[in-house]
């Protein structure tokens, strides 16, 4: 009920202004009567002039003219001889004419100054509203926040409530609850888009940008004023700005989708090219070795046959590791990697990796440094070994000939740290976090080394799935990287 009462008062503010002018004249009459009766002071015209000035400054030029007219009548009727009549003695005619002229002139000037000050204040407010809205629209890049900001700005510009509808989404300003009739009118306005009158005093207009209608907006001002041109102009400019911002957001989203598709296509081509190479190389080696053994096996020396069998074994393991990486990436992407953590001996996995890769890379020095105390990790031993295999193989591939790759493990509080350091080219410090992103290859890497850029990203996914972490840092004693795998210690 209070809100309805306030709304009714605000909607009749113009009438209340004239009522206030009448009350001021009545107060002036009372004060003039007291001065005349109690103090015998009959020159009370300034009291009525004061009422005119107060009406002009506080209520506007229209109420000021009304105060001047009522003050003239009251002054003539109550205080000019003969009293209580509208007759005027000859010597008082000049006084009345001067009083009316001065009252009209001062009331009009004061009211005009007041109206101009209010108009300047409204223009400043309009400029501020448009500036803030434009700044916010420029900072926002998504359609929903822009629509919400438009609803709030529209409510402020209309000094009431506002609702914005884009498709099936409804965005309301604070304290605005759209009715079913209003929503139906807004959906109809989305088709036509004309500026129409809606139900319950709401006003509707479509949102247009680049010749296309994006939605519709509705607003209901609480104040009914005769001079609404500036307010309507502000509302329509604000609506056009909001529609342009929504169109820009849609264009940006479409452009982002196009770029994402282009990147996906490029990554797909690069991945297929890399996979074809990584699959073809071990398959070619296996096929060549197996064919040689089958065709000329009896002619080869035992050492040559053993070397060909070792090649088949190594390339088959390499192929198996590559397929395992692809499967792991697929499972990680699909959130289908089930981890069943259990205690396991970390040193055993490190020792197996050392014995597996040290003979394969005779031109590299693969060293292992383990503490005497056992290191019992908490996680999946197979997944941890696969993650560590990717890190070690990556370090061996990028290290120079005769370079050293060191595997070290230690306990740090309730965490087990496994560090793999190499003497490769490393990476710029600002790119260390990117090393674990899919398909990323550092520009400093050897371009002759083929790879899909999946190894370290799989390491990150596997370690995080087990509750661990992986990080990279530059070696402090020379070129190279230190990749650290951290795993919770078993309870």
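^ structure tokens above, recovered residues below v
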């Amino acid at each position: 009920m209070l809100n309805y009462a306030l709304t009714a008062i605000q909607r009749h503010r113009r009438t209340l202004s004239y009522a206030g002018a009448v009350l001021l004249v009545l107060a002036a009459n009372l004060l003039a009567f007291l001065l005349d009766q109690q103090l015998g002071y009959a020159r009370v015209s300034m009291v009525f002039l004061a009422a005119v000035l107060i009406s002009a400054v506080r209520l506007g030029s229209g109420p000021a003219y009304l105060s001047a007219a009522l003050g003239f009548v009251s002054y003539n009727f109550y205080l000019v001889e003969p009293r209580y009549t509208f007759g005027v003695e000859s010597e008082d005619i000049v006084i009345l004419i001067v009083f009316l002229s001065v009252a009209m002139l001062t009331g009009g000037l004061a009211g005009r100054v007041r109206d101009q000050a209010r108009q300047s204040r409204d223009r400043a407010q309009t400029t501020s509203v448009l500036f803030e809205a434009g700044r916010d629209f420029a900072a926002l890049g998504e359609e929903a926040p822009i629509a919400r900001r438009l609803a709030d700005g529209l409510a402020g510009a209309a000094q009431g409530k506002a609702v914005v509808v884009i498709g099936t989404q409804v965005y309301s300003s604070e304290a605005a609850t759209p009715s079913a009739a209003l929503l139906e009118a807004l959906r109809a306005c989305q088709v036509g888009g004309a500026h129409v009158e809606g139900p319950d005093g709401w006003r509707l207009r479509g949102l247009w940008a680049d010749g296309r209608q994006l939605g519709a907006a509705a607003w209901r001002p609480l104040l009914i004023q005769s001079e609404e041109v500036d307010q309507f102009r502000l509302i329509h400019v604000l609506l056009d700005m909001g529609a342009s911002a929504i169109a820009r957001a849609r264009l940006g989203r479409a452009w982002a989708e196009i770029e994402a598709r282009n990147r996906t296509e490029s990554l797909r081509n690069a991945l297929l090219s890399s996979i074809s190479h990584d699959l073809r190389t071990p398959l070619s080696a296996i096929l060549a070795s197996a064919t040689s053994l089958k065709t000329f096996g009896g002619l080869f020396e035992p050492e040559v046959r053993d070397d060909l069998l070792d090649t088949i074994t190594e390339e088959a393991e390499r192929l198996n590791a590559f397929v395992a990486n692809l499967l792991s990436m697929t499972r990680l992407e699909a959130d289908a990697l089930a981890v069943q953590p259990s205690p396991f001996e970390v040193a055993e996995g490190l020792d197996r990796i050392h014995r597996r890769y040290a003979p394969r890379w005779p031109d590299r020095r693969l060293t292992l440094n383990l503490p005497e105390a056992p290191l019992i990790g908490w996680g999946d031993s197979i997944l941890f070994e696969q993650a560590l295999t990717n890190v070690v193989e990556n370090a061996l591939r990028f290290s120079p000939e005769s370079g050293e790759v060191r595997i070290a493990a230690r306990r740090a509080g309730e965490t087990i740290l496994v560090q793999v350091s190499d003497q490769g080219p490393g990476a710029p410090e600002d790119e260390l976090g990117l090393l674990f992103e899919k398909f990323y290859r550092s520009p400093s890497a050897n371009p002759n080394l083929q790879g899909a850029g999946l190894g370290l990203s799989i390491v990150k996914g596997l370690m995080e799935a087990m509750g661990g972490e992986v990080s990279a840092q530059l070696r402090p004693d020379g070129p190279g990287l230190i990749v650290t795998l951290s795993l919770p210690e078993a309870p």
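The chain has twelve helices and twelve strands.
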